[in-house]
Known about the structure:
The complex is a heterodimer. Chain A is of the alpha/beta class.
Amino acid sequence: MNTNRDRLRHTLEASGRIDAASAPLLDSQLAALCASGALDVVLDLTEVTYMSSSGMRVLLLALRRQQAAGGSLVLRGIPDRVMRVLQVAGFDRVFPIEGELPADGEHCAD
Amino acid sequence: MDRQEVCYASDRASLEPISEFVAERARLAGLDEDRVYEIQMATDEACTNSIEHAYDGRSAGEIIVCCFVDGQDFVVRVTDFGHKFDPDLVPMPDISAPLEERDIGGLGLFFMRRLVDRIEFTFDPVSGNHVEMRKRRVSA
């Protein structure tokens, strides 16, 4: 009996604009990954140029889905401008994030 | 800089061309790339609200995006002719709440308010919903 089995990490790479038009596709990709039994998922955002609240909603849903399945969702390679927006909404406190964070916490209108 | 106005279908596929239009106008108005990103995102959220709420996802409506410069401000005005959007009825998201308590909605409006220097919502049964967002062209 293998009680110490490796948990494979599945990486999904997103790219381009993640807005209300494209967020449903990302959502279905993440849902399909979860349904296929992937427990630990890494979402690589290196090539993402923009993310709106529609995309952030998809991230939040995916995190809940993975956690409900006993797994995890890690964000990786978040571009600076996307990161600042995630920080404004407090997502950096909710998501495990791999990689460097921008030095200044936020850069938005005061 | 000239005032420019473009009319788009109330379709999610319009979001990218709207974003490109606003970015082009914002750069012409002298905004740096961080500010361009912020006004683009605020506009994207406003147009998403028009499509998803004012028009209930129907793509047969019109969204008019108007960009101009007013003194130190770059101004984007988004108009739709869907039903009345009342920002006061949208609860503000609790961004400090733990994950399991987080409401998934309200974030779009939250960003619109956070990303611009001034925002004003008006509604008229004939002339529609207007959202006017002002972003200072250079940081104060």
